[in-house]
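Exercise 7.
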Amino acid sequence: MDVRDAIRARRSVKKLQAPAPSASQVAELLELAATAPDHGGLSPWRFTVLEGPALEAFPLDAGSSPMVVVVGVEPQGDKIRADEQTAAVAAATQLLLLAADSMGYGAMWRTGSAAYDPAVARAAGLSPSGRIVAFVHLGTPADGTSGSSARPSAPTPSAAPAPADGAAAAVTPAAGDGSLGIGSLRS
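Solution. The predicted structure, written as tokens, is:
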């Protein structure tokens, strides 16, 4: 599948069951996630893989998910702003979701109140300055589909021609119908 098609097709899968990815598949998923753009080369992401008794003991309602990857950010120094480091971790999370889908697993990015609880962050091994960006639930879709076939793909946005005067183009949500409108920014 072409990467553009994979991006268009990937969907969150809410109901997951065993089996989850194997240890070697998890290693590959995390390797792929760590290729995310990372301004400054700081690798601020932290991945904590929970399954079995570790998942059951973790302070999180995982529902039926057989595996959860806690994705955290550990800001590294003052060279690069903390919000930029968090953005790199969010990009890594998206790559993790796409990679899981490409392997035929279902995945869902969740947060909720546990993501903002310092005690949960400590339980995931994060330092006092670290924080949780995502709980990525992984497993086999309970309905037998893959994430990319769980529902139809989103509508394709329509594109407007680039402004002739060299102004930058902006993509913004349009009329509440899920489509995108493209306009231009002028100084």
